[in-house]
């Protein structure tokens, strides 16, 4: 069993020459979204390694292949085609972002090959369409996230002047559409919109535009690094708005980018349980997996601090998806095929992972509606 996991631009985690169960994963391990992509892959590998350490599934080891897509839709498509055509993968796990998945949907890559994909790091409604039957979601939608945020701001706090900053890309388009729909339910409209280039991540102009408006609150639809830059630049330009982001933002990466004090006060929508809540059975098992793989032998508490070296919610996301795939493979039986794993996933109705329930059926792929809103403290931690 591996004690140190090194994630590079293109890798195979826990790869075995004789493995018969191939699972593919396309995430960014280079570029603007690399830290989150690496963490998602690491979280999945933790569980797969624990399964392989116990002899695999029905005596067959899992070959978890991870390929870098650098947050580029065409590379996501190419990686997926290779998994299907060259690697003979039986399932796909925890992909990253909206644009790459949109490309898979447009080309019908999953449908034509009959391969299930468990977990998408996106809550875009277009991905959650009932027509996308081969995509099994593990997080609530952007619409559900923005509904919660607007309920807090407008319903509980009386905040009505709300603006948005978003990336010029499918993540931004999906997030802003969800936000506008949530505002409309409360007879509200955005008082300002600012957009930044998703490739460069330069948010300076967007911060300047919204600082002039200085609304009561701003919703950030971005990845972690651009979100952090915007928070810092906006405050430097005199902006005093309450700042909230959707779940793609990882709090550890924000604190690392602009410092704990600079990140203080940022609210973040979360779609998974708090990774440090030891009262949850799921989190207890997640932390044990981290300890078993990354433990130093000097004590569990010290070893678990390793979680903080990675975006912890993203690690948990990959871990959850891996558990779901393993359960589906077990249900599929000896020599699992793509169709057998797909069919097994559709039988996972109200499947309790230990305080976090996934609900799939013949037509339902949305999985969960879990969500909560957290706030970054001056120490860089989260309050809930």
From TrEMBL:
Database matches in InterPro entries: Leu-bd, Peripla_BP_I
Protein name: ABC transporter substrate-binding protein
Cited SUPFAM superfamilies: Periplasmic binding protein-like I
Keyword Signal found: yes
Segments passing through the bilayer: none
Stored Pfam families: Peripla_BP_6 (PF13458)
Record-stated family: Belongs to the leucine-binding protein family.
Domain Leucine-binding protein: from-to ranges: 20-366
Keywords: Signal
Biological source species: Deefgea piscis
Signal peptide per UniProt: 1-19
Tagged with keyword Signal: yes
């Amino acid at each position: 069993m591996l004690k140190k996991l090194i994630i590079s631009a293109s890798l195979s985690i826990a790869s075995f020459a004789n493995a018969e169960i191939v699972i593919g994963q396309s995430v960014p391990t280079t570029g603007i979204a690399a830290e989150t992509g690496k963490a998602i892959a690491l979280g999945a590998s933790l569980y797969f390694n624990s399964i392989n350490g116990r002899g695999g599934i029905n005596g067959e080891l899992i070959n978890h292949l991870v390929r870098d897509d650098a947050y580029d839709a065409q590379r996501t498509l190419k990686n997926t085609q290779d998994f299907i055509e060259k690697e003979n993968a039986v399932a796909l796990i925890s992909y990253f972002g909206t644009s790459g998945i949109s490309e898979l949907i447009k080309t019908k890559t999953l449908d034509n090959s009959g391969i299930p994909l468990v977990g998408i790091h996106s809550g875009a409604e277009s991905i959650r369409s009932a027509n996308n039957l081969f995509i099994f979601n593990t997080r609530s939608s952007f619409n559900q996230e923005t509904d919660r945020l607007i309920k807090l701001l407008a319903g509980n706090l009386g905040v009505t002047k709300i603006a948005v900053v978003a990336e010029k890309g499918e993540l931004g388009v999906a997030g802003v559409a969800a936000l506008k729909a949530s505002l409309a339910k409360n007879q509200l409209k955005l008082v300002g919109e600012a957009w930044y280039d998703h490739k460069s991540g330069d948010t300076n102009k967007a911060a300047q535009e919204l600082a002039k408006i200085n609304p009561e609150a701003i919703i950030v639809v971005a990845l972690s690094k651009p979100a952090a830059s915007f928070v810092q630049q906006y405050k430097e330009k005199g902006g005093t708005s309450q700042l909230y982001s959707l779940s793609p933002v990882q709090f550890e990466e924000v604190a690392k980018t602009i410092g704990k004090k600079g990140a203080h006060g940022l609210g973040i929508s979360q779609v998974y349980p708090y990774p440090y809540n030891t009262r949850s059975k799921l989190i207890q098992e997640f932390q044990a997996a981290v300890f078993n793989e990354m433990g130093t032998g000097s004590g569990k508490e010290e070893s678990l601090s390793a979680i903080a070296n990675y975006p912890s919610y993203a690690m948990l996301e990959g871990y959850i998806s891996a558990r779901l795939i393993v359960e589906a493979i077990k249900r599929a039986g000896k020599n699992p095929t793509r169709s057998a794993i797909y069919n097994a996933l559709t039988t996972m109705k109200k499947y309790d992972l230990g305080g976090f329930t996934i609900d799939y059926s013949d037509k339902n792929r949305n999985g969960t509606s879990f969500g909560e809103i957290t706030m970054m403290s001056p120490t860089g931690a989260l309050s809930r």
